[in-house]
Write a structure and sequence with these properties.
The chain is α+β, with helices and mostly antiparallel strands. It has twelve helices and twelve strands. The strands form three sheets. It has a five-stranded antiparallel sheet with strand order 4-5-8-6-7. Bound molecules: flavin-adenine dinucleotide (FAD) and iron/sulfur cluster.
Length: 339
């Protein structure tokens, strides 16, 4: 591992200044991703700026508009078990608890979860060409072993998926990401935070150099009555999603008044198609209607041989999760069905 300087920041201003005062530096929060990337020489840093001492972003608070603000430095575990999240945003709690392991969730922070890198095998293999790690070198996954790769929003440069569970629920819940930077503070809707690979696959998201995520806002509507998060994977725990679905429904009897569906494991960002949600409004909550919505969501989906199965799997997952959302009380916290 290369040597790097280590410093601690106590305020956001201090963190931004420290980050920009070193040639090539990165923030460290829980360290569960950045340290691996440094150890395996996937990324490098002359300095790590530890942002954990910034106290104001370690809490979850109610906002006047009825929503909540979740600090970027709150751990994934403390977020999932916070009473406001458990009661009002159980979809988020369930998605977080479907990810990683208890030990990792105890360290991993919310800001770091948004910025975790892909799990593409070739990205982690420094002997393999990879446009994301080394722009212009090629993509080993397109003609390689691509079982875990994307079926939507891919490019000729990269077919990697963004691996987060938490962000799939955040996309469904219309979360907003609050950011501070050297020049301004601003907010980015979660659905616009991550990028498609296009011809710049080395850029995962729209955070600008020197910026820090401070918090995540959730609006008042939490879909706490009818929700479900379904994660399908090769192993029933401690594995990333082949396909995941976050569904939130607002029902009047068996008629859908509002619907949110976001997919994980299928694209370079959490995948949401507003047209499918519009289609469901005013319709009966049935397998047929969730199937028709799935067809809209998966329009244009393309496999790369080893991952062709994901297209049918995603359709079945959307239907099954829609039906599971009708009876969330039957789902145990963190429990996930096997394939
Ligand atoms: C074995 C293993 C299994 C996993 N399984 C899953 C899974 O199933 N589902 C899932 O969703 N995740 C999974 N993860 C990923 C895990 O959730 C992430 O590693 C974690 O959320 C990253 O958070 P962190 O605080 O540790 O980030 P760090 O590693 O500290 O940082 C990650 C990146 O974010 C930057 N950063 C951190 N905080 C901020 C901030 N506030 N502002 C700006 N930049 C910041 C850092 O500079 C770095 O580039 C797994 C991880 C491991 C190691
Ligand atoms: S899919 Fe993306 S991350 Fe994977 S090898 Fe290709 S360019 Fe690299």
């Amino acid at each position: 591992m290369n040597n790097f300087a280590y410093s601690r920041a106590h305020t956001v201003t201090d963190a931004i200044e420290q980050l920009n005062s070193h040639g090539h530096s990165q923030f460290i929060a829980g360290g569960t991703n950045v340290i691996d990337l440094l150890k395996y020489f996937i990324t490098s840093a002359d300095a790590l700026v530890d942002i954990n001492p910034i106290e104001e972003y370690h809490s979850i608070e109610e906002m006047e508009d009825g929503g909540i603000r979740i600090g970027a430095l709150v751990t994934n575990a403390d977020t999932a078990y916070h009473p406001l999240v458990e009661q009002r945003y159980p979809l988020l709690a369930k998605a977080i608890l479907a990810g990683a392991s208890p030990q990792i969730r105890n360290m991993a922070t919310n800001g770091g979860n948004l910025l975790q890198r892909t799990r593409c095998y070739y990205f982690y293999d420094t002997n393999a060409p990879c446009n994301k790690r080394e722009p212009g070198s090629g993509c080993s996954a397109i003609d390689g072993y691509n079982r875990i790769m994307a079926i939507l929003g891919t490019s000729e440069q990269c077919i990697a998926v963004f691996p987060s569970d938490m962000c799939v629920a955040l996309a469904a819940l219309d979360a907003q990401v609050n950011v501070s930077g050297p020049y301004s503070d601003h907010t980015i809707p979660l659905v616009d935070f991550h990028r498609l690979p296009g011809d710049t696959p080395h850029l995962d998201n729209n955070l600008q150099p020197g910026e820090i995520i401070t918090s995540i806002d959730l609006p008042g509507q939490g879909f706490s009555r009818n929700y479900s998060y379904l994660k399908l994977r090769d192993r029933n725990s401690y594995a990333f999603a082949l396909v995941s679905v976050a569904t939130g429904l607002e029902l009047e009897g068996d008629v859908i008044r509002d619907a949110r569906i976001a997919l994980g494991g299928v694209a370079h960002k959490p995948w949401r198609v507003p047209e499918a949600e519009e289609f469901l409004r005013g319709k009966t909550a049935s397998r047929e209607n969730f199937g028709a919505a799935a067809d809209i969501i998966l329009r244009g989906a393309t496999g790369f041989m080893h991952n062709n199965f994901k297209i049918e799997l995603a359709k079945r997952a959307i239907i099954r999760n829609g039906m599971m959302a009708l009876h969330p009380e039957t789902q145990l916290p963190g429990a996930q069905p096997s394939l």
